[in-house]
Every structure is written in C-alpha cells, then in structure tokens.
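Q: Give me the 3D complex with D-xylitol-5-phosphate.
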Amino acid sequence: MQPTVIAPSILSADFARLGEEVDNVLAAGADWVHFDVMDNHYVPNLTIGPMVCQALRRHGVTAPIDVHLMVEPVDRIIPDFAAAGATDISFHPEASRHVHRTIQLIKAEGCRAGLVLNPATALDVLDYVLEDLDLVLLMSVNPGFGGQSFIDSTLRKIERVRERIDASGKAIRLEVDGGVKPDNIARIAEAGADTFVAGSAIFGHADYRQVVEEMRAAVAS
Ligand code: DX5
Ligand code: ZN
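A: Here is the predicted complex, encoded as structure tokens.
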C-alpha cells in the first residue's frame, strides 16, 4: 500500500480564482492537484486543457498535477500535457484505440501512467497492462460532472483491484474518484484505496484545512 494521497479535484474550485484556490488547498494539506479534462465528446462536459496546467506551473504550483483525461481520441493531447507540467496522466481505455501504446506514450513523455475504469467497465482491461501502470483510477461515479453520489458497487471493485495490485508486487496506486466525502472515505480506504480524489467535498467546504484533515484522519483510523 502506498502512502495516502488526498487529491482535490479543481473541477469544483472557483475557476475565476484558480491559482489562489490551488494555493489554498495545498496549504491546507492536500497532496496532489486532480485536473479533470473533459472534451464534450467522450463526456458531455467541457473543461480545461494544457494551457491551464501550464498556467498553474507558472503561478508556482510545485505539487504533482494528476491529469484525468476524459478525451477521445486521447494520444494527441498527451505530449502537450507533459510539456505543460503534468506529473501523472490517466486515460479511459474506451478513448484509446491501442491502450498499451498510450500507456507507453505517457511514460515516454516522463509522466506516471494511469488507466481509468468507469463504474461498468470490467477489470479485464487490466489483464495484460497492470504491471505497466503506475496507477489504477476507479471511477465511483459516471465521468462528466462533480457533485454526484458515490456508487456503492465500487467498493467490491476496489477490493478486487487491491488484490490484483498486491499480487503484482508493484508499487501501483489505487485511486478512487467520485463522491468521496469525509463520511465514506474510511470505507473506501478499508476496501483498499490509497489515493482519494474529492471535488465538491473539499471545495464546497468553508474550511479546506478542516475537511482535508478530517479525511486524512478517517483514512488513518
Ligand atoms: C468526474 C471527475 C471527478 C469529479 C469529482 O468526472 O472525474 O474528478 O470532479 O467530484 P466530486 O468529488 O464532487 O464527485
Ligand atoms: Zn477526475
């Protein structure tokens, strides 16, 4: 199991004050910045691209930027995100014609590579690529929007992915994204996750430090 990471999703931040929001959430104890990229094609929403990632780096953000690509096709945008300062890049297998090639492309660009599984995606996609991955990102909502409710069947899925990661003997992170809150994060951690994305639960809270500490304490208990 990897050390716990709390990764606030900036999808729920105030985009008019993004640099300040990211500074504040990192000062409050968050570990990574989760950066949701939506293309109005793979998912029915449109967000931000490499220019915004680069702007955060120029603003002085040094924390890992965990780019979650909900973009189809995906390969062409990967070098742009690597150049813009992404440290981790995850993609959905449905959005790539050649999943193994996309993983290798992310690594060749110097980033850690992640594969994202939607709530209904079977674990088979991991069969021949798990050992090439740095992280598995399990969606616990359908991708496209913040503020949705956690889908409980994800808990069983987390357990099964945890077994596979442990059996591989590799240092692969198990990240969970969607509806993660202080009141369910302990169950998600018990199931085997070590990396937690939370958007509305953190940015919707008046005190970022309090909610980040509450989440970290719940994981540790
Ligand atoms: C959904 C995104 C998530 C989302 C999480 O497609 O990938 O990262 O912003 O938001 P909450 O924590 O509000 O479910
Ligand atoms: Zn995400």
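A quick observation: The chain has one domain: 5-220.
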